[in-house]
Amino acid sequence: PTRRSSDLEHDPISVPHQFSTKQDQEIAALFASLFAWGQRKTIIFKANDLMHRMDNAPFDFVKNLQQKDLRTFSAFVHRTFNEDDLMGLLSFLHEWYQQNESLEQAFTMGAPWNITDSLIGFHQRVVATPGFLKRTHKHIPSVLKGSTAKRLVMFLRWMVRSNEKGVDFGIWKQIPTNGLAVPLDVHVARMAEQMGLLKMKPSYQWNDVLELKNFFLKIDAQDPGKFDFALFGLGVKTQ
Q1: How many Å apart are CA 231 and CA 238, to the nearest integer?
Q2: pTM greater than the 0.85 cutoff
Q3: From residue 98, how far is each of 35, 38, 93, 155, 225 by CA, in Å?
Q4: pLDDT of 231 higher than 90
Q5: What distance in Å separates the CA atoms of residue 162 and residue 192, rounded to the nearest whole number?
Q6: How far apart are CA 56 and CA 73, in angstroms?
Q7: Residue 166: other Cβ atoms inside 10 A
Q8: Whole-number Å distance between alpha carbons of 42 and 37
């Protein structure tokens, strides 16, 4: 199955689709992807709540962030992500956009580009933000610690893959589509196991993500990330 644009209202990607400018889209997409664990309805509600607290202008809000603005996030919480975690990410984004035009540069320092180094570099840049709490590190996946980084892999897919089908955005041009991976969530993992693409394990790690990516590169050398739609859709239908 393919994911249709009509399905977007039930998907976290619907949150950045409410915006038309690049920076608004990437900020909304980052938070929507980082919140993407648990029930979809709750994920979307919390991400939209956050955008509302930013006056539905996330780039302007983040770039001009002042101490007094932080009161608007009082008592914000999504599962284990709380107000203190949000402060750290907002501080990173505020500092980043003072010096950079886009979040894309946070994922593209270093050449040739590969997804492993990109995610390592992004993690290191974010957690190095002054005042960033150690407890918040867990919300920025670390592939060096074995994380499958499902949420950031999904975020990259949203930003990089073509918007031809009206699903992904295609607004980042420095990252090659053939460098993307498939976000390894429970639905994708179950289908990959049933199809013999991955060996069944109690938990998966980053090497398993790369193994699946390399398999799909053999089928489509230009766009291995597109297989996310098929595996996820089948996984949901057969659960």
Answers
A1: 11
A2: yes
A3: 25, 33, 9, 22, 31
A4: no
A5: 24
A6: 14
A7: 12
A8: 9
